[in-house]
Design a protein that fits this description.
Layout: H1 3-15, H2 23-33, H3 43-54, H4 59-69, H5 73-82, E1 94-99, H6 102-105, H7 109-121, E2 127-128, E3 134-139, E4 151-153, E5 156-158, H8 164-176, E6 190-191, H9 208-211, H10 260-263
Length: 277
């Protein structure tokens, strides 16, 4: 697809996006917003609300959150991609997060938990089942370092989660979806595509690196390149000891400081009235 056709497709999709949460969701938003002097401060809470509304943090949800919290979409995207606990569309309905930081990784605790998940669901880390029900990934520290391995699934947090305890939980989860481990045997998982599909962090506009730059949050990923006014300017060179002479005679013929009389002269001229070269 050409860039222009992709642009048209993105604009068409965007035109049909919702502009706000459901009435119940908006009521919760205002309750959150009233607790903070600045709506930006409620961003993480509003993202959690978006998860409840959409089932995951979609592009549409990010746009709504940005509008409600008075920040740019790029700011919301940065928050969502920085914190691994936010659920994205590429995750499974049930998302297994297994801590892979040192304390859990010791004594093969992390690997033991991952092998049990793979044995039951047929997926390795970074994969999702073909039916979209389950996904699994390694994440950074989930706390409770003294009780490894630590596993989170959806909104539940587990410690010492391996062996019979993990097997029983997996069987319970499968049963709730009308599935058995046999349904996933011999069916390899699908690698999750964790890239942001339609909201690139930013791109450069023609000439901006030479004459100025658009403020990061003003860069609309859907605007054709080069549109809009530059909002910042690149300042001129600073006058520092590295860029201008500091005293007469500093660079004398013998590499030594000049006379006390010369060192006290103004920066712009020497005894003969000539400026520094």
């Amino acid at each position: 697809m050409s860039p222009s056709n992709m642009q048209s497709t993105n604009n068409a999709v965007r035109a049909n996006w919702r502009k706000e949460f459901s009435p119940e969701g908006m009521k919760k938003f205002h309750e959150y917003a009233d607790e903070y002097p600045n709506k930006r401060s409620a961003l993480m809470m509003v993202l959690r609300l978006a998860e409840e509304e959409f089932g995951s943090i979609t592009d549409e949800a990010m746009q709504i959150v940005a509008d409600l919290c008075n920040v740019g979409v790029s700011h919301v995207q940065g928050m969502v991609t920085f914190y691994t606990h936010f659920k994205r569309p590429f995750h499974g309905k049930h998302r297994f997060m297994v801590c892979a930081t040192l304390m859990c990784a010791l004594e093969n605790n992390t690997d033991a938990a991952l092998k049990q998940v793979e044995a039951k669901l047929g997926i390795k880390t970074g994969e999702i089942t073909a039916d979209g029900l389950f996904s699994c990934e390694k994440v950074e520290c989930l706390a409770d370092c003294d009780k490894p391995p630590v596993v989170q699934c959806d909104k539940e947090h587990f410690t010492s989660m391996k062996g019979p305890q993990l097997d029983a939980y997996l069987d319970q989860l499968l049963k709730s979806e009308g599935k058995t481990a046999a349904d996933y045997q011999g069916k390899p998982g699908i690698k999750m595509d964790q890239r942001v599909p339609t909201l690139p962090s930013h791109f450069n506009f023609p000439g901006e690196s030479q004459v100025g730059a658009r403020h990061f949050e003003n860069k609309d990923a859907y605007s054709p390149e080069g549109q809009g006014e530059l909002t910042t300017k690149i300042p001129g060179a600073l006058a520092t000891p590295l860029t201008v002479p500091v005293a007469d005679g500093v660079n004398g013929a013998n590499g030594a400081l000049g006379s006390k009389h010369n060192a006290g002269k103004s920066h712009g001229s020497n005894q003969n009235g000539a400026g520094h070269g």
